[in-house]
Amino acid sequence: MKFPVQLVCVTCVVIATSLAEFPPKYVEDPLSELPSGHLKAFGYHRLPDGPVAEEKGFLHPKIFWGKYVSIHKPMVFRQAISDSPAILKWTDGYLVETFGDLDLILEVKREDRTKQPQRTNISSFIERYIKEDIYAVTVLPDPMRAEVQVPSCLLCGTFRDFMHETNFWMSSGGTRSVIHYDADENLHCIINGSKDFMMMHNKFRKYLPTFQKKQFTGSGFSSLDPDSVDLLKYPDVAKVQWTYTTLDPGDCIYIPSEYLHQVRSHKRTISATMLFTTDTSKSFQETNCEDASFNYTPLSAIDVHWTYKKGDKTIDMGYINVELLRQNLVDIFHMLGKGFLTVDDFVHVYSLASKDEEDEQSLQKAKELFTKVFEVDIDGKITEEQIKNLPRENLKTLGRGIDAPHGPVLDEEDDDDLDTSHGKDEL
Ligand SMILES: *[C@@H]1O[C@H](CO)[C@@H](O)[C@H](O)[C@H]1NC(C)=O
Ligand SMILES: *[C@@H]1O[C@H](CO)[C@@H](O)[C@H](O)[C@H]1NC(C)=O
Predict the structure, then answer these.
(1) Which atom in ligand 2 lies closest to the alpha carbon of residue 120?
(2) What does the pLDDT look like over 65-103, one tens digit per residue?
(3) What is the whole-number distance in angstroms between the Cα of residue 124 and the centre of ligand 2?
(4) Ligand in closest contact with the CA of 416
(5) Region of residue 339 (left: phi > 0; alpha: psi -120 to 50; beta: else)
(6) Is pTM, for the whole model, over 0.90?
(7) Is the Cα dihedral 310, 147, 175, 259 positive or negative?
(8) Rounded to 10 degrees, what is the CA torsion of 153, 156, 161, 166?
(9) Which atom of ligand 2 lies at the shortest distance from residue 416's CA?
């Protein structure tokens, strides 16, 4: 992961100059035999369909649901978190002084999903991030959540109850993602710097080369090089329609689940993202919306499922929404119609969910998980009440059992030792 400084800076300059123009301008060249945009960055392959839809001011969750989430339509929510103290406070010095001992997961700037993430603390990250090829993409640590505003569109109902992960992203610029989609609904908000987004409907997935996906987490990405699109090898890419936006501090973009997107940053940029899901019936429950307060609310006031605080062995990232997991268990319970769940029912569901081979070892693992999650013997019969009252921690044990951890896990014996043998999950 340590690159010679010189090499990194050459790369930065090349990226910065070639991508300075946004949105990219498609130019038809009738004299050329090559397709327009060939070997240029993604976005030069055709004219955009225009900017992403925008909102500003107060946005009620019910309106957010009706106009956008229910129909999977991306939307830029200008100034949605502009009252966040983080926008003015999060200088390098303040981050080191106030949060220096908290841990982060690091990736490389030009997303490479074959590379293993690393773990380090904020102090050492700030010391290194300008010179080295590192990008913090991590769980927003608990104390930092207190300084980020919740956008009004998430302040009641299913959206508020089903926020399962919040993230912190920071780099000195020159980052670019691959073209990908995520399983969850996502609000990506800017705290410092700016980010360019290109958004593509998931119906265009078929025009992009190989999508690697995870069955259960429901995310995936294209193998296309977004910095140099080979339109001779992949002529169908020219059919991929796109919209665009640039976000500045305080702005958020709603990225619908499974919506394709590609993201770039050019200078010091900090983002906070909020992952949420709709429930299993794919609807919005208005619980608590009647008497909700839409006053300023920090993220620390939300009961986020997966969190990180100092001393935690793992930085739990990329796991399933546990309330969705609970609902799934209830749905399976009703589908079976027996009045209870047994270990065999559980093992069956587990093997479907985890994509594990149904070998002896994974059957054993599923059985152990059953007794651990429900705190019963192997012949226990689980009732609907038990599922509905299962503590979040138990559901998280199940969530961790289904997916491999995203980042390195601190060793039990020696906290300084990093065990990077675990598979990387997809963002
Ligand atoms: C980003 O933060 C730096 C200080 O850390 C500040 O000087 C700069 O104005 C901020 N830029 C934006 C666009 O927020
Ligand atoms: C951060 O990590 C470095 C390197 O592991 C260590 O030397 C330093 O004491 C840590 N700083 C804080 C504030 O925890």
Answers:
(1) 2
(2) 999 999 999 999 999 999 999 999 999 999 999 999 999
(3) 6
(4) 2
(5) left
(6) no
(7) positive
(8) 30
(9) 5
Quick one: which atom of ligand 1 is closest to the CA of 191? 14
- Residue labelled with tokens 């109850």: 161
Strands 75-78 and 54-56, bridge-based pairing: parallel
241 vs 204: CA distance, rounded Å: 8
Distances (CA, A) of 381 to 12, 131, 331, 363, 418: 58, 57, 16, 18, 39
Other C-beta atoms lying within 10 Å of the C-beta of residue 70: 14
Question: pLDDT of 142-174, one tens digit each?
Answer: 999 999 999 999 999 999 988 999 999 999 999
What SS3 string covers the chain? CCCCHHHHHHHHHHHHHHCCCCCCCCCCCCCCCCCCCCCCCCCCCCCCCCECCEEECCCCHHHHHHHCHHHCCCEEEECCCCCCCHHHHCCHHHHHHHHCCCEEEEECCECCCCCCCEEEEHHHHHHHCCCCCCEEEEECEHHHHCCCECCHHHCCHHHHHCEEEEEEEEECCCCECCCEECCCEEEEEEEECCEEEEEECHHHHHHCCCEEECCCCCCEEECCCCCCCCCCCCHHHHHCCCEEEEECCCCEEEECCCCEEEEEECCCEEEEEEEECCCCCCCCCCCCCCCCCCCCCEHHHCCCCECECCCCCCCCCCCCCHHHHHHHHHHHHHHHCCCCECHHHHHHHHHHHHCCCCCHHHHHHHHHHHHHHHCCCCCCCECHHHHHHCCHHHHHHHHHHHCCCCCCEECCCCCCCEECCCCCCCC
Nearest Cα neighbor of 274 from 240, 313, 321, 312 is 321
Give the residue, by CA position, lying nearest to ligand 2 atom 9.
Answer: 101
Compute the distance between CA of residue 366 and CA of residue 10 in angstroms, rounded to an integer: 49
pLDDT score recorded for residue 367: 92
Residue bearing the CA closest to ligand 1, atom 14: 192
CB within 6 Å of ligand 2 — which residues? 100-101, 121, 123-124
Question: If you measure from the C-alpha of residue 149 to the centroid of ligand 1, how many angstroms do you get, rounded to a whole number?
Answer: 18
- Closest ligand 1 atom to the C-alpha of 193? 13
Instruction: Catalogue all structural domains in the chain, each as residue range(s) with its CATH number.
Output: 54-315 (2.60.120.650), 322-407 (1.10.238)
**Is ligand 1 within 6 A of the CB of residue 173?**
no
